[in-house]
Here is the input.
Amino acid sequence: MKKRTVAVVMAAAMTIGMMVTGVSVQAGVEDKTLIVGFDAEYPPFGYKDDNGEYVGFDLDLAQEVCDNLGWELVKKPINWDSKDMELNSGTIDCIWNGFTINGREDDYTWSDPYINNEQVIVVAKDSGIEKLANVVVQAASAALDALNNDDNKELKDSFASLTENPDYNTAFMNIDSGAADAVAVDIGVANYQLSQRGKDKYVILDEPIQNEQYGIGFKKGNDELKDLVWDEVKKLDESGEVDKLADKYELDKSMLCISEDKDKTENSDSAEADTEESADSTEKETDSESK
Here is the structure.
């Protein structure tokens, strides 16, 4: 089998392990200031637009959370390599922007998931590549970690080369030039890139590398801040504002999973109530038979 050239994006906002690019947040509860440190190379979740403004689905969501809380939002790009140090030192208080929960469950205090994500493979439309078995490419650290998993060892060993690119723009340019056969990327980022570059030029392969979920990661034990922020996110979801942001940034709304947590809670409460009611009924029948 022909070995293919594989490009991997190691963006400035990338992290080691099963994480993807993210936004770091420091919330000054007392001074009502929310300082957001973020990677500016991760559209549609956080990036610099044509007007030089920092925007994105998660940044705008953070802004609306601040508006509801009466806080000031300060957007500050950071060196992603130092994010954990800043989080642990208290310089920032959470990481928020395409931040993968899977594999990191015990490392942070997490919000509930808000996006169901997939790592997918994008190829040039005329490449002739149709199946995942032909090529696998990593464009984010969560996908890179998946490649290093024993489950994907055979796929990884089939590559002629595995190239780390500094950002997604470079990765897609490598596909265009033929320097790489494919790029692996979060489905939301893939859809954004294709909408900007031309959907007729690329194909997203049907089989994903990995399924995962995004959440907001806070410093271990910082439940107070997590609860404050997440309560506002849930309110924004209930009011339809989260759907509006998804439309604004062309994010597939089927990826949103905030309400799934609510449904699970309601179903759990309902099941618990049914169990209690059943127990009461059984107890009454027993008492009746005793009499």
